[in-house]
Amino acid sequence: MDAYARDQTYAVPGAPLAVVLARDLGDVVAAMEWAHVHRVPVVPRGGGSGLAGGATAVDGCLVLSLARMTAIREIAPRDHLAVVEPGVITADLDRAAREHGLMYAPDPSSHEISTIGGNLATNAGGLRCVKYGVTRDSALGLEVVLADGRVIRTGGRTVKGVTGYDLTGLFVGSEGTLGVITAATVRLRPAPAEPPVTVLATFGTLAAAGEAAAAIMGDGLRPSLLELVDRATLRAIDEWRRIDLDPDTAAVIIAQTDGPDCPARELVRRCTDAGAGFAAASTDAAEAAALLDLRRLAYPAAERLGNCLVEDVCVPRSRLPEMIRRIEDVADRRGVRILTVAHAGDGNLHPLFVFDRGLAEPPPHVQAAADEVFTAAIELGGTLTGEHGVGVLKRPWLDAALGAGTRAVHRQIKQALDPSGLMNPGKAI
Amino acid sequence: MDAYARDQTYAVPGAPLAVVLARDLGDVVAAMEWAHVHRVPVVPRGGGSGLAGGATAVDGCLVLSLARMTAIREIAPRDHLAVVEPGVITADLDRAAREHGLMYAPDPSSHEISTIGGNLATNAGGLRCVKYGVTRDSALGLEVVLADGRVIRTGGRTVKGVTGYDLTGLFVGSEGTLGVITAATVRLRPAPAEPPVTVLATFGTLAAAGEAAAAIMGDGLRPSLLELVDRATLRAIDEWRRIDLDPDTAAVIIAQTDGPDCPARELVRRCTDAGAGFAAASTDAAEAAALLDLRRLAYPAAERLGNCLVEDVCVPRSRLPEMIRRIEDVADRRGVRILTVAHAGDGNLHPLFVFDRGLAEPPPHVQAAADEVFTAAIELGGTLTGEHGVGVLKRPWLDAALGAGTRAVHRQIKQALDPSGLMNPGKAI
Question: What is the ipTM metric for this complex?
Fold first, then answer.
């Protein structure tokens, strides 16, 4: 059962009573009714790729895995939608959609191992968010099993609809604390006609890189990806892979465009105008893959250095350079190695806090550094988590992020839908 | 007080106890606290342009008008957002944004008289939705006064954020039944660099017009407007304004593009390929205005014929032609004149049911026709209301549209946030 008790974080799980490997709606209803009658907590889970401890088992719980509900029930090409079960792997849905000339846009970095159900539960983001929005923006309707085993349907197959409260939006991102998603109708989009063009730009200062990102977004260009990799991350990658890093490089921007709403030459021009030392576009697929690797190598490069606390703050776009500066300052003062990559177009940063491999969880000075980073994000008008969720790991900061009044409303809604408090207790709110 | 007791519908208001013309947050809190203590129902309202009876007064209520809270507190050009009070007229915000090269995208047809607060309360749509989404897609954060006078803040200034439940999305579209929105942080977007290009196409059959709309959306073109006007509407406009209507025209499509993601020639080509009798693009502003007038004249042309029941069903895009055929069938069988215009790119139809000017509300055979139209929309996988809201007028169909289980969840949420049931009673859910 241990494999089903944890996600990708260091959050220490309790001991589950049992694991249910649901195969259909009936299994989920049976499990929820049983748990309701016997007052057993339920921890739903998808692929277990979460980064906030949202699927961490609690003592005596039923772990309810949706990972075996993997049917893509329908792809409706003319209506640009799919009806899927929660265990469908995110990238599998995208591949299935592409057979119809469509795509499933949300692409968390975990998309080859994460499930749609988990993506919905956490309102997952990804690289393409900057153009296509987060998972909630692709959720049209849900089938949900409530805490007492009742089954409801929300939303539907239309792109607009205001019949009643936005229950779809409420369940998306609720991290399994309000119900279990057993099916979803999700929006597909026409796949881009041309392969993407990739742009790489290097900058001598963070401010210049931030300026380039702001100029790109500010001028209404619509890149399909706009990532920033900071100096600490570049150094870690260079130490490992020898990328011939110019020591004067403070940050790189990697961008992609997949359509005429964002000519690559305009991306290059904005970077050059902002003072890039180097900026060029490539249509070569191998070269594009190599450039994207620079972004993808951030996590393994950090993990090579030790255990990692992966964080996920989001600030208003204009505050991105300031936020990175604050992170660098925290790293210096606290003596913590922090590698930062950012979905720059969304102001969403992932600082990776490296700590000793021998430790099961971040030591106090790393926790203190993370605490300072959260506080800085909130001070800059930002939030604790842009796309990973609250889980168990971020709950200590909820009062600072939301305020007592808003937290009380969260609890009122939780109490209304799960009065016994059995759905994924101790998570999200 | 009568002027503050009703919206644009025939819904018969009760007699309010008083009208509060709030000027600031303190006024709203004072009113809500007083109403809470004295158990007086509160009916919040904005511009009174609603089309579902959502702002209709009930007997003995406090009407709480937000129309005098008109400050645009902030426009943050680099973060593409504005902070506004609820009484700001929708078009005024758009104009203010344009001074910074930005736009406020949601544009309900009432945008010169409707308020942002009302737009948020109903999750208003509009013509530009097809490209830029509905009001909820532009809502980043809210300040809300709850039923007992408590003030909370939801969301924030970031484009991504998963800290807690999506309360912003929940309050948007809740039609004043959960709280009163006293400020909003809304997303602005870069204004298009070029003036729009307008396309007109005429079709001999509805199927061909539907095929053109499907082809445009299916190929990933992103028109900023894609409207369909049916034969009944064209005839009514022709009788009034003599537009030299070809009697063989079953429908026209009016489209606009505002960017390189949707070349006008591609719009024309899709219409021609689908069998348009005429299809052409115009960059002339006066001509574009004349073409859009064809769409805008639908309402006055219908009102010229009598009183109107304005409806608002939404179906999956591919079912649009079938839905129009069903409406025509209902009109024939029931002997009711129904004019239909549609936001074709979204599958959102507005059938206008004409009835005798001497009647205060639709007579039974018109109600029966509307009932058949709602039933048809639900049968086609659609919904009761795409953008106008439920108000009082659509509540009789909620069971058919949502099912008892989903309605129960609505009531549980309402009960949690407004246990005394004082917020806009009898509306929305």
Answer: 0.97
- Binning pLDDT at 50, 70 and 90, where does residue B234 land? very high
Listing DSSP states for A111-149 in one string gives TTT-BHHHHHHHT---TTHHHH--GGGGEEEEEEE-TTS
Closest CA–CA distance from residue A134 to any residue of chain B (Å):
8
Report the pLDDT value the prediction gives residue A219, as an integer from 0 to 100: 86
* Chain B environment of A160 (Cβ under 8 Å): 125, 129, 134, 314, 343, 346-348, 386-387
Q: CB of A301 within 8 A of CB of A240?
A: yes
- Residue from A102, A135, A138, A163 whose CB has the most chain B CBs within 10 Å, to mutate: A163
Q: Is the pLDDT of residue B194 over 90?
A: no
CA-CA distance, A324 to B124, in Å (whole number)?
37
Per the CB < 8 Å rule, is B316 touching A163? no
pLDDT band at B23 (very low <50, low <70, confident <90, very high): very high
Contacts of B129 in chain A (CB under 8 A): 160
Query: For B170, which residue in chain A has the nearest alpha carbon?
Result: A166
Residue of A158, A343, A406 lying closest to B153 (CB–CB): A406
Q: Is residue A392 a contact partner of residue A54, using CB atoms and an 8 Å limit? A: yes
> Residue B382 and residue A158: Cβ atoms within 8 Å?
yes
What is the rounded distance in angstroms from the CA atom of residue B428 to the CA atom of residue B393? Answer: 9
Contact A193 B220 (CB under 8 A): yes
Domains defined for chain A, CATH in brackets: 2-65 (3.30.43.10), 72-190 (3.30.465.10), 197-379 (3.40.462.10)
- Nearest C-alpha in B relative to A406: B152
User: Model confidence over A208-250: pLDDT tens digits?
Assistant: 999 999 999 988 899 999 999 999 999 999 999 998 889 999 9
Helix (H, G, I), strand (E, B) or coil at B343: strand
Say how far apart CA B153 and CA A335 lie, in whole Å: 36
Count CA atoms closer than 13 A to A87's CA, side-chain side: 15
pLDDT tens profile B373-408: 999 999 999 999 999 999 999 999 999 999 999 999
Burial (CB count <10 Å: 0-12, 13-18, 19+), residue A109 = buried
